[in-house]
Every structure is written in structure tokens, then in C-alpha cells.
Amino acid sequence: MAAENTVFVWSGIDRNGRKSTGELRASSAAIARVQLRKQGVAAKTVKKKSKPLFSLGAAPIKAANIAIFTRQLATMMKAGVPLVQAFDIVAEGTDHQKMRELITTIRTDVASGTGLAGSLAKHPQYFDDLFCSLVASGEDSGTLEVMLDRVATYKEKTEALKAKIKKALTYPAAVIVVAVVVTGILLIKVVPQFAETFRGFGADLPGFTLFVLRISEWVQSWWFVMMLGLFAAGYAFSQAKRRSKRFADWIDSVSLKIPIIGDVVHDAVIARFSRTLSTTFAAGVPLVEALDSTAGAAGNAVYSRAIKRIREDVTSGAALATAVRSTGLFPTMLLQMTSIGEESGALDDMLGKVADHYEAAVDNAVDSLSSLMEPMIMSILGVLVGGLMIAMYMPIFMLGSVI
Q1: Residue 26: beta bridge partners?
Q2: Strand 19-26, strand 6-13: pairing
Q3: What pLDDT, in 10s, does the model give residues 315-346?
Q4: CA distances (Å), 290 to each of 92, 119, 320, 345, in order?
Q5: How many CB atoms within 10 Å of residue 402?
Q6: Which terminus of the chain, N or C, has fewer Cβ atoms within 10 Å?
Q7: What element of type H or E holds 161?
């Protein structure tokens, strides 16, 4: 018996009498033949797909890939393309190997009679409960194309927000890495050359130069231990955050208190809360269930706990605006718009406007943060490299003045 995710290559005759070939996933060759028969294909050969001898491995599927797939599927459905045929078109149009395999697997499940939500739920690492529940709501109400469009918009806006924040952090991180590498090269390779020259001076060296020389000697002796320690610390941090919920919750709490960055994290969480609740409520999901999904998508443990308390208050009969206000964590604008939305029956529209506002606020904050950090980082880099150079040339300047 083969593994459940085994890929089989098949060839045969379709229901129109044409020769056809393709790939599908199944637990065995016999099951693959059964699936093909259900699709109207008379299979001649079905064999396990061979793997290449030398391969660096296909790129992993990212959330951005899922967002693109959702938008393409929504576009096909709105154009009146049948669901199974839409999967075929989207699969043929992607160059991402693993994404194509995932789409083909879902397409096979759908063609064999499984609902789209049920097929997506078999891949929880790519399609979370929120995604599947919205698709299921669309299938039940007969508005799958509308729901897919809403899910696609939600995924696009969420990923755009994440990409904006990552972009702001990438530049300073890259400059810091370059600064560390350049400083290390200077201390290990360049400073020792100056040290050899200084030994022939026969005079006392400036204190700053002696300090840099001692640092250089220490780095030359312990650089490997330093690198090993940095990697070990990074690995330990990532493992602790992944395995210890208490540690991960503490990190989320601390991130909200960091100057400037904490404000960006806060606005991003509010935007995500508003967008998720707006999307689920507009899809016809009951408010209590929508709050469940929103708590899971908050992205911060502090706000996830607060949303769960809101859910409990709403379940016991409290108005949403009152429950949100009782947490003391949400801004006045959200409270007022929620109250107006409840009174006017347009809660999804009001929350959508709040999401738009805070997404724009995150964009502006990230742009301002990038503009502020750029000169600071360049100054730090200049002080590091320039300081080392000054320390090395000070004895030479002093020698020149004596002569």
C-alpha cells in the first residue's frame, strides 16, 4: 500500500474517446483507477511517479500562493467556468510545482464528489478553519463564486499587510547583517595587519587603538564560538516560541510594549480583527462563530484572549460594542463604528471601513518607520566602520606629528 500522498501518472481514454494523460494522488494504484473511472476515464496505465535523482526540492507553498490561487478560482467561477474545469485551468497556469500538485489533488477530490470545503479541509496547513467555513457557507447558500471572491479579497488584504511589515523589517535586518559581517572582517583580517605595523613603532599606542586591538584578538580567538552561540540562541528562541505557548504569549505581550513598533503591531491586529469579523459576518456566519474564527486569526495572544472574552459576553446576551468596550484593548473608533453598525444593521460595512482605516495607518506607520530607521542604521554602520579606521590610523597620525 502506498502513502496517501503518492502521485500516480496515468494514461487512458476519456469519455470522448480521446487519449489523455495526467497525474493524481491516491493511496494505491487500484484506488487511482477507481477515481479515474468515476471521472469517465478508461485507464490503460497507472504507475507511481518517479522522483528525479538530483533535486534541490520544490519551493514550499506560501500564504501568498494560496491568495493567488483563491483569486484565480474566484475569477473563473464568476466567469461561469465549471468548478472542475476551473481547477484544470488554474493548475495549468501555475509554474509552482507543489502548488500545481495541491490543486490537482483538490480537483480530483472535487471531481469524485467531495464538496470543495471538504476537499480543502484535508489540507489544514494551507486552508485554515476560517477559509473552509467561509467556503462551506458559500456552498450551502449557493453563492460559492461570491464567497470565493470575498475570501480572495480577505486573503489579498491580509497578505498585503504582512508583506508591508516584512518589507519594513527586511532593510534594517539586511543592513545590520552587512554591518556585522564588515566589522568582523575588519577585526579578523584588517586590524591584525595594522597590529604588525604598530609593533615596530617602539612607542605607546593610544588607548582607543589598544582597546580595538584587544577586541580584535578576542574575536580572532573566539569568532567560531560566537557564531555557534548566535545560531544556538536563534534556534533555541524559535523552538521555545513554537513549543511553549506561555513563552509565545509573553513575546506577543512584549511586542505590544516596544516603542513605535508596538503601535504598528497594535494597528495591524486591529486591522486583522476588523477585516476577519467583517468578512465572516458578511458571509452569513453567526456572530458567535465569527468571533471564534476571528480569535484564531488575530495573530496576537493578548487580543486572542480578549476576543474569546468578547465571544463569551456576546453568548450571554451582551451587545458586541459593549463586549468589545469591556476589554479595554480596542480603540474608540472601533467601538463607535461597531455601535453604529449594530444599530444600523450594517456591521460588516462599518467593520470593513475600520479595517481600511487601520490598514492605511499601518502603511503610513511602516513608511515612517523605514524613513526614520534608514539614517539611524547608516549612522551606526558609519560609527562602527569609521571608528575602527580611526583607531587604526591614530598611531600613524601621532607618528607623523612627532616627525
Answers
A1: 6
A2: antiparallel
A3: 988 889 999 999 888 999 999 999 999 888 88
A4: 35, 22, 12, 16
A5: 6
A6: C
A7: helix 144-185
Q: What backbone torsions phi and psi does residue 28 show, to the nearest 5 degrees?
A: -160, 170
Q: How far apart are CA 381 and CA 233, in angstroms?
A: 24
Residues 6+ apart with CB under 8 A from 11: 19, 20, 21, 43, 44, 45
Q: Are 153 and 145 in contact (CB under 8 A)?
A: no
User: Considering only CA atoms, which of 175, 363, 200, 347 is closest in space to residue 277?
Assistant: 347
Which 8-state DSSP code applies to residue 104?
A: H
Q: What is the pTM of this model?
A: 0.67
DSSP strand pairing (19-26 vs 42-48): unpaired
- The average pLDDT across 67-76 equals 88
Instruction: Output the CA–CA distances (angstroms, integers) from residue 139 to 61, 79, 280, in the order listed.
Output: 25, 17, 14
What the block records as the C-alpha cell of 233 is 540562541
- Name every residue whose Cβ is closer than 8 Å to that of residue 211 and which is 6 or more positions away in sequence: 391
| 3 state DSSP class of 284 | coil
- Backbone dihedral region for residue 3 (phi beyond 0: left; psi -120 to 50: alpha; all else: beta): beta
- C-alpha cell of 169? 523589517
| Cβ(155)–Cβ(67) below 8 Å | yes
Kindly list the strands in the beta sheet with 6-13, ordered across the sheet, starting from the edge strand earlier in the chain.
19-26, 6-13, 42-48
Sequence-separated (6 or more) residues with CB below 8 Å from residue 322: 313
Q: Provide the terminal-to-terminal Cα distance of the chain, rounded to the nearest Å.
A: 87
Q: Are strands 42-48 and 6-13 parallel, antiparallel or unpaired?
A: antiparallel
Q: Which of 15, 1, 2 is nearest to 111 (CA)?
A: 15
SS percent in the chain: helix, strand, coil, step 5: 75, 5, 20
Q: What does the block give as the cell for 213?
A: 586591538
Cα 266 to Cα 365: distance, rounded to the nearest angstrom: 11
Query: Mind listing the pLDDT tens digit for each residue in 104-117?
Result: 888 888 888 888 88
Residue positions counted in the chain: 403
Write out the three cell numbers for 13. Answer: 481514454
Q: What is the mean pLDDT of the chain?
A: 82
Amino acid at 104: T
